[in-house]
Amino acid sequence: MQDNIEKMIANMVEIKKESLIGHTREVFKAIKKAIRLNEDLLLKTSKLDEKRKNGKAIDFQIIENIFDNLSKQKLAYGDVITSEKMDSENMIYGKEVMDIGNVAIIHNGDSYVLLEMILRNIMAGNGMLFINDGYMLGTNQLVLQICQEVLEKFSVSKNMMQMLITNQYDILFSRCANISLVVAIGDRVFQNHILQKSPVKTITSGYENFDLYVEDDSNLDFIKKIIDSTPNIQVYVKEGIELDGENVMTVMDMDEAIAEIQYNGSSYSAAIFTSSSENASKFLKEVKYPQVVVNTSPTVERILDIRQQDLMIKKTIIYPIPFKK
């Protein structure tokens, strides 16, 4: 295991990425095209993972949403943005978008996370080491292979993105001299574990982990469907409401629910079901999550809440204006 990690990281360190500069958007479009061309194979593979009780069938609408969302990103590896021109000093001031280096992404194996983080880190010019315990292994290997083949067409080594199957994260942290950033994606307990162990800068996301507060019984049938279809959901129910489930917790009122969500929740997406517009407004105001909704499923967005700017560096540049003879 130690040898594998060291070899993978060493391979990423040696990658030449010059051909990516000015071409990351072309790579993005080429990956989108390749994914579309392989839709049937991806669906068959994901259904095999599902049949083995090790995954779920791919939803191509979610994949389309990922591409649509990321197509709006304005900054890419190697971009130079001129911010100021000082004729009196014969100088131009600006920013250049640079890569952070190598990023370790630790997650539960969700294929949407794999694809989105591949795209985001290509746009940032970063090497990627994906670490998970093998969930959706067949689908993830296929997604990785498709993206690696596109990279090689742009003269970039496939070793820019690699995947390691393990849950022994401590081995990674003892060998991460060339890892510049760790991204931990999972529930609050998982996030805290990685934050405590990681010796380098770490950012977290609760993607695909949801919190829901039920204040009255007017939408119970819909709520039960949400619970049945969403494995990683914590439900808080006001006293007096009949709702059973493994992840259902009774609370006295909304204040207790908000306190539980803020302290123990996913920090990703939360919902309240209520007939009170006043309580809905209070919930929206006090729950400090990237996504908060009222009387609808907290799973409605499914957008990874990692900021693109956290995966890149903006280097300040100052250079002289050429003198005219």
Gist?
The protein has 325 residues and is an alpha/beta fold. 39% of the residues lie in helices and 23% in strands.
Into which percent range does the helicity of residues fall?
25-40%
The CATH topology of the largest domain, please?
Answer: Aldehyde Dehydrogenase, Chain A, domain 1
List the strand order in the largest sheet: 5-4-3-6-7
- By secondary-structure content and strand pairing, the structural class works out as alpha/beta
- Could you tell me how far the N terminus lies from the C terminus, measured between alpha carbons in angstroms? 62 Å
Over the alpha carbons, how many angstroms does the gyration radius reach? 22 Å
Overall mean confidence score, pLDDT? 91
Give the overall form.
Answer: globular
- Total of DSSP H or I helical runs spanning 4+ residues: 11
- CATH architectural name of the largest domain: 3-Layer(aba) Sandwich
CATH superfamily of the largest domain: Aldehyde Dehydrogenase, Chain A, domain 1
Task: Assess the beta-strand content as a share of residues.
Answer: 15-25%
CATH class of the largest domain: Alpha Beta
Description of the structure:
The protein is an alpha/beta fold and 325 residues long. It has two domains: 2-14 and 21-207 and 310-320, Aldehyde Dehydrogenase, Chain A, domain 1; 210-294, 3-Layer(aba) Sandwich (Aldehyde Dehydrogenase, Chain A, domain 2). Helix content is 39%, strand content 23%. The chain has a five-stranded parallel beta sheet with strand order 5-4-3-6-7, with helices on both faces. A five-stranded parallel beta sheet has the order 10-9-8-11-12, with helices on one face. The protein has a three-stranded antiparallel beta sheet with strand order 1-2-13, with no helix packed on it. α2 runs antiparallel to α5 (111-124), α4 packs parallel to α5 (111-124) and α5 packs parallel to α6. It is globular and about 75 Å long. The termini are far apart. The model has no long low-confidence stretch (mean pLDDT 91).
